[in-house]
Design goal:
This protein is mainly α and about 170 residues long. Helices cover about 65% and strands about 0% of the residues. The protein has helices spanning about 20-55, 60-80, 90-110, 120-155. Helix 1 (about 20-55) packs antiparallel against helix 2 (about 60-80), helix 1 (about 20-55) packs antiparallel against helix 4 (about 120-155) and helix 2 packs antiparallel against helix 3. The protein is elongated, with a radius of gyration of 22 Å.
């Protein structure tokens, strides 16, 4: 065969499949991110709804927390789609980590040292601050994991000929 080098099948690429333990870890992480993001939307949305019912203004801090929660929930739903390799969007994970850091900073400063004195709203907001911290840490873990996966799993061969390193 004179042209045998052209008949070679492409070698398997490292980026075509994610190892099973990493896939499970990613799914568990995304599930927790989704649950905690929805929890934040509920905790802060309660105050937004109460303010709306009393025809008061919407506090931008609470709206920001709900917006970050909604962005996080939507992102996790997109990331768990079967064909989406979420580690390619590691920059977005870093951005969400920064947004959650801001939420935790804003509400932590307001409520961590606050004495609830039997006020259910203050107790709820103190709990919400710790949920914000959990969200921040979850997005930090996913950002680190996605960055590491991006730089370790992207090596491989080109799709059509298999000759070029990608």
């Amino acid at each position: 065969m004179a042209f045998s080098r052209f008949n070679k099948r492409p070698t398997s690429t490292a980026s075509t499949s994610t190892p099973f333990p990493i896939l499970i870890l990613n799914l568990v992480l995304r599930f927790l991110q989704f649950v905690f993001a929805i929890t934040v939307c509920g905790l802060y949305g309660t105050d937004l709804h109460a303010a709306h019912k009393e025809h008061k203004y919407t506090d931008s801090k609470w709206a920001y927390a709900v917006a970050v929660g909604a962005l996080s929930a939507f992102t996790t739903l997109v990331y768990v789609l079967p064909k989406v390799k979420s580690y390619f969007a590691f920059g977005w994970d870093v951005i969400l980590f920064i947004l959650w850091t801001a939420v935790f900073g804003i509400f932590g400063k307001m409520y961590i040292h606050e004495d609830p004195e039997g006020d259910g709203g203050i107790k709820r907001m103190k709990n919400a601050v710790w949920i914000d911290l959990v969200n921040m840490l979850l997005w930090l873990i996913s950002a680190i994991m996605a960055t590491v996966l991006f730089f370790t799993m992207r090596g491989g061969r080109s799709l059509h000929t298999g000759r070029a390193n990608v």
